Amino acid sequence: MDIKEGYYGQWGGAFTPEVLHSTFAELKAAFKKAKEDPAFWQEYVNLMSSYSCRPTPLTAAENLSGLFGGARIFIKREDLNHTGAHKANNVIGQGLLVKRMGKKRVIAETGAGQHGVATATMAAKFGFDCTIYMGEEDVRRQRPNVFWMEKLGATVVPVTDGSRTLKDAINEAFRDWVGSMDDTHYVMGTVCGPHPFPEMVAWFQSIIGIEARAQILDRTGGLPAAVYACVGGGSNAMGIFQGFLNDPEVELVGVEAGGRGLDSGEHASRLAGRDASPGVAQGYKTMFLQNADGQMRDTHSVAAGLDYIGVSPMLTDLWEKGRVRFAAATDAEVMDTLDLTMRREGIIPALESAHGFVQAFKEAPGLSPDDSIIINMSGRGDKDIFTIAHAFNDPSWKEFIIARGKEYAAE
Ligand SMILES: Cc1ncc(COP(=O)(O)O)c(C=O)c1O
């Protein structure tokens, strides 16, 4: 970290309302104590191995490697975490902190719903009350996750402001926190927001990179040529990248949502695109997609979890320093890649994760069979069944939905 607390180069910081200052001071103190206590990390690792699926496997994608004829492709299986995504790593860690702080209620924002499901699960396990804020558009896109959050005992609040996606859900969660900070912790889902959130979330997600580095050395005897990860806020990417930051020979590639194409304006590419500019919003400084007046723009991605206007200040710094390269994958490329990965490997990546696969598949053929690459598969695609079935225009799925609709209408 840079000398100025909470800054990564010129990015980051903590731009918070005065009323939250004591809450942030309490959180920073609790986090600092936990980070300095090896027993805390051990408790976290133990819980992740008994309650989630850690260490998650590193799967060799033999069929795809054969198809492309270039680098050996490995997939880090964060989809095998309990609740189906890397989000569980961060949420369980913050849950242990909440227990230490003695708070009784948690709130969270969610885009794809995976962070919401993970938070609702953690709240059920630790006995906390739980409220989840979710943009109305994401409620529509990720209905299965809303169902699960409610069944896990959480209250899901659809947010109708703005573009009704992730940024609007974050604003609403902060509004709640200002009025509830005495007994409530805000479980930020990604490496964004005011300090100490980026550092805290990155610390819990570093478990991915620590495991991945040891696993690839064990499997291949060397380091990978490149590591690919999709980037919404940036938590799965920072999680795996941290394992390789001190290995300059390993290229780190973040893949953003190219949506309907970078020239269409309908995307969420902050660093790969040419449209983002420096700004301060939602408590931190980074590159945001905004208009000339500093108003946040609407974004688009087929993947709800990548549909965000900002990006981690940590990643913006690493991008500026040339350590992380950025690329974008379009919605159409993502659907093709999903199809290929399902059919060739029997693996169903989340729409978000499939963005990382797109770029890795573009670059693998240009590498040698002596090289290996790792794709961080941040989550599994079950949650996306409605979106994927719609995009594939699947006739038997449509028939099923129409029949179900008729049954409910007749009730
Ligand atoms: C499966 C999955 N992957 C990736 C993301 C993007 O978040 P991040 O960039 O913080 O990893 C999300 C967010 O909801 C997600 O659910």
Kindly list the characteristics that best describe this protein.
binds pyridoxal-5'-phosphate; alpha/beta; globular; 4-stranded parallel beta sheet; single chain
In short:
With 411 residues, the chain is α/β, with parallel strands linked by helices. It has helices spanning 21-35, 38-51, 62-68, 87-101, 114-126, 136-141, 143-151, 166-180, 197-220, 235-241, 313-320, 331-345, 351-363, 385-391, 395-410, and strands at residues 7-8, 11-12, 58-60, 72-77, 105-110, 129-135, 155-159, 184-186, 226-230, 251-259, 277-281, 284-288, 324-330, 372-377. It is globular and about 55 Å long.
- In which range does the helix fraction lie? 40-55%
> What compounds are bound to the protein?
pyridoxal-5'-phosphate
Mean pLDDT: 96
Total helical segments: 15
Shape: globular
Order of strands in the sheet with the most strands? 3-4-14-9-10-13
Rounded to the nearest angstrom, the radius of gyration is: 20 Å
Poorly predicted ranges: none
Terminal-residue CA separation:
59 Å
Task: State the oligomer.
Answer: single chain
Largest sheet: 6 strands, mixed
Number of strands: 14
Query: What series of H and E elements makes up the topology?
Result: EEHHEHEHEHEHHEHEHEHEEEHEHHEHH
Beta fraction of the residues? 15-25%
Structural class: alpha/beta
How would you portray this structure in words?
The chain is α/β, with parallel strands linked by helices and 411 residues long. It has 15 helices and 14 strands. The radius of gyration is 20 Å and the shape is globular. The chain binds pyridoxal-5'-phosphate.
